[in-house]
Amino acid sequence: MAGLCQICLHNLNHLKILIEKTIRIQMKLSNQLINMVGMVFIYAIAGAILFSCGQQSTSENESEEVVMTESPVINGLTEAEIADGWILMFDGKTSDGWRGYGKDHFPTGWEITNGTIKMIGSGRGEAGSTDGGDIIYNREYENFHWKLEWKISEGGNSGIFYLGQENPDLGPIWKTAPEMQVLDNNKHPDAKLGNDGNRQAGALYDILPAVPQNAKPVGEWNQIEIIVYRGSVIHKQNGEVVVEYHLWTDEWNEMVAVSKFPGLNPDWAKVARKGFLGLQDHGDDVWFRNLKIKAL
Asked: Does residue 127 surpass a pLDDT of 70?
């Protein structure tokens, strides 16, 4: 009986030890679980904070980008344009820098009004006004990027000249200068003349059509760029390249040969490397603004 009690006591002690170990293991596991849950919770909070900071940083960067983007300036230059070497050709208030072709003054047939250079239409066709005629910027350019805007009156016609020569023996600037056409394509008869639309707005007049033909309607502003660099010439109209060609090549000579220009000046194809920029008096109301240029 005494031996049996000792065995029972031994077993009880062993059971006690097992229970205590089990409790310790359970507590350890419980603590680990608590720790794991706690860590997951902490990581979740940290992640949320980091995400929020990232969103805030992105928003701040976006705000900075918006602030840094400069709005277009009418008859002025942005800081970026000034830094990039652009020159303002018209301040919206005066005719400074402009004069009549073959003249020493700004013609009274033109006026500065409402932030524009306006040709006062005579209703008598090309150069029909008193003290009118084409005007030129009083500086010659060779390689350049020229930007400007125009709008035309109903049925109106005008033009933008470049690389022109002021030669009294030849007469008007169009006898030496390529011309980017300015026109009311819907009403002016010139739109139906020439070949394949090469007398419509944006065209290299009477030589190459503007493709695509994207001129805006009468009374709306058209954004223009003319780029000349070592004989390569590009016309851009309302953000699209519409004409591209190269001066002095065999192809150029062939294109000019079938145009109206050899009949006006047999040497017209020999466009000068450097010349004047001009705006045409064709007897119709036309407005220009936002003229600026960068030498290349």
From this structure: no
95 and 29 in a single domain? The answer is: no
Q: Is the dihedral of CA 83, 88, 94, 100 positive or negative?
A: positive
pLDDT band at 103 (very low <50, low <70, confident <90, very high): very high
Tokens, residue 208 = 């190459």
How many structural domains compose the chain? 2
CB within 8 A of 282, min separation 6: which ones?
119, 125, 126, 127, 156, 157, 158, 159
pTM of the predicted model over 0.90: no
Clarify whether residues 56 and 195 are in a common domain: no
Retrieve residue 22's tokens: 């089990």
Tell me whether residue 72 is exposed, middle or buried, using C-beta atoms within 10 angstroms of its C-beta: 0 to 12, 13 to 18, 19 or more.
exposed
Non-local CB neighbours of 175 within 8 Å, separated by 6+ positions: 167, 264, 265, 268
Distance (Å, whole) CA 275 – CA 193: 28
Closest CA to 164 of 184, 137, 145, 191: 137
- CB neighbourhood size of 81 (10 A): 18
Specify burial of residue 124 (Cβ count, 10 A radius: 0-12, 13-18, 19+). Answer: exposed
Q: Which domain CATH number covers 173?
A: 2.60.120.560
Q: Is 74 domain-assigned?
A: no
